[in-house]
């Protein structure tokens, strides 16, 4: 085993689908690299306790060289203690007959409570990635309720959408996905997100030139990426798990170890400073580069009117979600009548 001291990685909702996919990826080094030992902290809720124990047993049975320990618990404070990275996957799924507000109210309450546990126990400098939906707004609620964690340390996952856009361009052009660079996901991890190819390149040439079909890029391509989550649910009867887990590893790896030296960028949901006219005070997906464990929004990209309208629409949705989330929290603070 490497001599580096182990890093503690929290995965909430670890007994669920994404949890089952991501824990082995982390234990194999896909998140922090092949020389970094890890201790997995897995959190789930009481009804999933037995399944969580089963995941722990399998992780031990796999004898991963980088895995220096496993904590499996249903106690949020125990789970958050000393963690360097927190991947927040746990949440309440939408059930038949539930309104958007019902799901939002369950999830924001979870993220408020877990913010407190993280604030109390996480290691200084802990990096937080929220995966559970509504990912941007859960991340915002976590940020609002963990004031001692710097806002720049709290992010949400839009890398899956980014990778989906890369995958579509690679399939369409017949060029390997590693040659597709600088696609951007703007805004919310929802069907209003704007997958933007205006700065993307394929094998070093402008994506629009290589694809040679603006009607496709401005229509079907955008819709396929926006609706990919729903298409996976339709095909599998379950929401995306291996691609979500893999993209979450990409997000943290690039954040911690840096984006490529060629200056190419990736998409991350981060606390908005109002760049590109995005609303301030929400978690909005931007193009970023990362160096020395810090992300920076890529500045100076030209934005045409069509793009600006799409970026505004997804920003407006985030402002609405924020208002709804705050309303849910205010109602829960008043308690049942
Ligand atoms: P899942 O239902 O299989 O697993 C969720 C797990 O969370 C369950 O084991 C559940 O017991 C646990 N859980 C519930 N409340 C909890 C709490 N308070 N604390 C800790 N754990 C708790 O779901 P999944 O397929 O793994 O998906 C997880 C979430 O990720 C969902 O919200 C899904 O919509 C979202 N998702 C986001 C993206 C993205 O790109 N951002 C992609 C795919 C899925
Ligand atoms: C996805 O993009 O695959 C998920 O966010 C879909 C979902 O609703 O869980």
Automatic annotation (TrEMBL):
The chain holds residues 1 to 337 of 605 of the full protein. Its EC number is 1.1.1.37. GO terms for molecular function: L-malate dehydrogenase (NAD+) activity. This is malate dehydrogenase. Belongs to the LDH/MDH superfamily. MDH type 2 family. Residues 8-154 form the Lactate/malate dehydrogenase N-terminal domain. One of its GO terms (biological process) is malate metabolic process. Residues 158-325 form the Lactate/malate dehydrogenase C-terminal domain. It catalyses: (S)-malate + NAD(+) = oxaloacetate + NADH + H(+). Keywords: NAD, Oxidoreductase.
